[in-house]
Amino acid sequence: MDKINDTSIDFASFTKQELDSYEGGLGGLTRREFLKYCTGIAATMGLPMSVGLRIAEAAATKIRPPIIWLHGQECTGCTESLLRSYHPTLEALILDTISLDYHETLCVGAGKQAEAHKRKVMEEFHGKYVLVTEGGTPTKDGGIYCKVGGRPHVEHVREAAEGAAAIIAIGSCASWGGIQAAHPNPTGAKATHEVLPGKTVINIPGCPPNPYNFLSTVMYLLTFNKPPELDQQNRPKFAYGRLVHENCERRPHFDAGRFALEFGDYGHRQGFCLYKLGCKGPETYANCPAIGFGDVGFGSWPVGTGHPCFGCTMKETGFEKPLHALADVKTFSPPTAFPAVDAAKGEGITPAAAAVAAGVGGLVVGAAATAMRNMGHSADSGQPPDDQDS
Amino acid sequence: MAQSTHQPLGGKLLTKPFLFFGLLFLIAVYFLATRFVFGLGSVTNLNGGYPWGIWVVVDVIIGTAFGCGGFAMALLVYIFNKGEYHPLMRPALLGGLFGYTLGGMAVIFDLGRYWNFYNLLLPWYAQPSSVMFEVALCVMAYILVLWIEFSPAFLERLGLTNAKQKLKRFMYVVIALGVLLPTMHQSSLGSLLLVMGSQLSPLWFTAWLPLLFLLTAIAMGYGIVILESTLVTNAFKLPSEQRILSKLSPIVGWLLAGFLVLRFVDLLARGHVASMFAGDLNASMFWLEVLVFVIPAVILLSPARRTNQRQMFLAALLLLAAGSLYRINAYLVAYDPGNGWSYFPSAPELMVTIGVIALEIMLYLFFVKKLPVLHGTRPA
Amino acid sequence: MDKNRRRFLQGAAGALAGAVAPVESAQALRRENKQLPPNALGMLYDSTLCIGCRACVTACKEANDVPVEQPAHLREWNVGVWDSGEDISGKTLNTIRVFTHGTKEQKDRSENGYAFIKRHCLHCVDPSCVSVCPVSAMLKDADTGIVTHNPDACIGCRYCVYGCPFGVPQYQFDETFGKIAKCQFCEHLQKKGQIPACCDVCPTGASLFGLVADLQKEAEQRLSQKPGDRYEFPRGRLGDDRPTHEAAIPEYQSHVYGVKEVGGTQIRYLAGVPHEKLGLPKLPDESYASLSEGVQHTLYKGMIAPLALLGGLLYLARRSTKQHEDGE
Which residue out of A333, A345, A386 would a mutagenesis test of the C interface target, given it has the greatest number of C Cβ atoms within 10 Å? Predict the structure, then answer.
């Protein structure tokens, strides 16, 4: 492990380690637990299991990427969500995986001491640390509606962005402006990428976002030294590439036309589709139904517990569309089980039917031919006609 | 006893062909039993797009056209007063009797709610605008008329001369009805399609459908008379009726020519020349149909050909084929319900139709052997 | 030749020719199209609002007590779960079908798009099924114009199935004692003051119930809006105080289907792709029943023509039978 003892983040040059060396490599996890964690991260991103090893390599290094975490206009829900991740646990995360050098909720130090440490880290790891922003950034009146250490949040963000190797906006507020950016937006709240023109900001929207989407993005950054594949709104595709509606466990009810009509009614208790209650799943891109929240098993996400999806990961939906309003159903294509307008129907010609029809045809032709052969050529060859007609 | 030249043929009934037809009929009975226990869909390929299959088109619509021999001959013998054709009358009536009776029976197999059949006769359910209503009543009445028309044969057999004489006095009423009713319903079998509009190919859909159906029905009636007479006289070595038949031929020939002229003039007038040459299934079937109509017309109108028994027989066969093809085309081929539906009869469905035809032939054989139907006697 | 007979034949030929009429005057035989009843009830189906949830199909099955349908060839992958009827049938009175093209990327677009279409009885103003039924089993309400079916009268001839230009009435071929099934606009629910089940449950108002006159106005109003503008789409019954569904006005085809087709229908369709692509055929303005009834009524008016023909036939037959000694 000596040869990687420098501070560069070029983790790609790691040599392959004996797997046993991972024993206790992360927060006292056994080797098996640790590898499970790394391959789980890989699976979250839809990467092959072999990548899990590379992630393990990256995670087991002593060099933990320094992270500066800035809070703007927010509820700390994103942090709370992160604190509830169990693989790894919080302590394993911040003590072994990353080096959370500055985080206003979790800092041991406070006031000037904390600010000074932040400045020190920013200088020492210039161009190497990861900046995470949580919450919207007020811009009206010089951004005075959110101040830390006497300076507007927007200034902290711009300053920290200068030397950041990567910038991640966690949560819908940092990604789009969030609830404070909703009409009438009295503080002029904006998204992180809006106050950092020209910078690439990875958006991890959600209210709160799933902690594993964040962790996976960070681990991807560490492993491959580049952001994961992003969509047009700079969201990692592995997490935001699919419609909630497509993976929803209640989807069959939608396809079968079974809907809850109000909270607590028969359909609601039966677990029917929540579309009519205003579920935004059909227009929301997120992996909530696939991975759930809180590591407590299947169904631990809003729709799973009986509440309509409110579209928190979508800029134009969460905090924008009324809760009761119906979603625009965005599917990649119509359901395959639906009958087509011109679908061919009706039994075709079966061999048996063809045989019977052909047999009859042959019989008629044959019989006619036989009859004709037995006939005379003209009336004269027949017997004398009967003249007895009345 | 009135001087009648009609004689029962006599002879053995259970011949090999008769037993073969009996077997076919038993197969049909099996499938019909299935149909009545498990529903129409268990036997037929009928579907939501093609609710009428061969049980309607072949058994009823073509079947009754085959049964038009009695109608066509009555038209000739009694209305156009051509007494010389009289010997052909009774066998023709017999053919009509079976064609219609079995057609009526086949309707019961095919009706989805046959137990309500009598509703057709209940005045409060009557729907006079319906072509089907008129066809149903007409056919029912005509079956009755046919049995009365044919009843002299039974009465002769039973020796009820007195009853026959009484019946004879009113026979002209029955005969007049026997011409009127087929005129009405055979043309109406064409009118049935008038409601189809664009569901029918323009090659077949025309306001002339009733007349076209009537003309072909009469032609097929003559066709069956020629066919039957030729077959029977040959098979049972009876005196040939070829001379009468060849006199009949030009009439049928001109009828066919008239049909063809009307068909083409109508298509030209409606401006559907392009459809004739569209090269699709409809166009191909149209030309096949025209060809099968033209050949018998040529044979029947040629004095040289129509004295040849073989050619006459061929003409009769083609005539019947042409009329049948016209009906199949109009009802099934030209009909496109849209929505992706297609239809071809299933094997059991075909077997039922075959069984019905087999029964018809068996009954015919039974009747001509046991009742005074055919003219003249077996030569000594 | 006998003078009387000749005259009769001339008359008969003339009657026949006159009855069936020269080609160009086939139209002249038509009777007038029937008119929309005074309180005609109908539905406006807006394909662009339809999200393909099939709530209407389920509700219809429940309301009309018809079973879930699974064609044999689809039973394998779908064991007893989904209703997968391919079209309306003896057991499905209403279904949602889909038009697709190419990559199926965008809804309500004919190129590389898709669109939903609801399929059930259109309740024609001048219905073929009512015209063709020999036993008055198909009835059109004189006031509301709803076309209903009376299975007690029905003999199962299936002429209505054959004759309907939309292929709506369906016979239950797989039943021992099958009957004709068709949408009767939930007449039984309407009697209880409810509205048709499909319109009742439609989440977006794609199926909207109401008086045909009002629905037509609503359809025209939608067409007159600018695409992209917000619009409050009514749900359930037009004129009720149900919450509306607010959405943008889509790019409509400028045609309201059902105003004129075969003399008009009481179900009207708005769509974003041409209606023919959705299985709604291009049809003439004249109802199909108007031609067949026109011809039939001309030929059989007061039974005058058949009776006249019978009179002639009687005369001739009597003559002939007297001449032929062995007349029968």
Answer: A333
CATH number at residue B242: 1.20.1630.10
Cα–Cα distance, C83 to C86 (Å, whole number): 9
Q: What is the CATH number of domain C41-289?
A: 3.30.70.20
Chains that touch A (3 or more CB pairs under 8 A): B, C
Give me the residue spans of the domains in chain C. 41-289
Q: Does C230 touch chain A (CB under 8 A)?
A: no
Do C314 and B172 make contact, defined as CB atoms within 8 angstroms?
A: yes
Residue of C nearest to B3 (CA): C326
CB contact under 8 A, A386 and B230: no
Q: Pick from C153, C175, C326: which is nearest to B39 by CB? A: C175
What is the rounded distance in angstroms from the CA atom of residue C94 to the CA atom of residue C118?
7
The structural domains of chain A, with segments of one domain joined by +, span: 65-239, 242-334
Angle of CA points B102, B108, B112, to nearest 5° = 150
Residue of B nearest to C28 (CA): B207
Domain extent at residue B290: 46-337
- Whether residue C194 lies within 8 A of chain A, CB to CB, comes out as no
Is the CB of B112 less than 8 angstroms away from the CB of C88?
no
**Site of tokens 């009113």:** B170
From residue B308, how far is each of A380, B143, B151, B226, B275 by CA, in Å? 9, 35, 34, 12, 37
> CA of C116, closest CA in chain B: separation in Å?
15
Q: Is the pLDDT of residue C6 over 60?
A: no
The domain at A65-239 falls in which architecture?
A: 3-Layer(aba) Sandwich (3.40)
Please determine whether the domains at A65-239 and A242-334 fall in the same fold group of CATH: no
A242-334, superfamily in CATH?
Answer: Cytochrome-c3 hydrogenase, C-terminal domain (4.10.480.10)
Overall size of chain B counted in residues: 380
Instruction: State yes or no: pLDDT of A58 exceeds 80.
Output: no
Predicted complex: ipTM over 0.95: no
Altogether, the residues listed in chain A come to a count of: 390
pLDDT digits (tens, 9 = 90+) for A122-134: 999 998 899 999 9
Q: pTM of the predicted model, to two decimals? A: 0.80
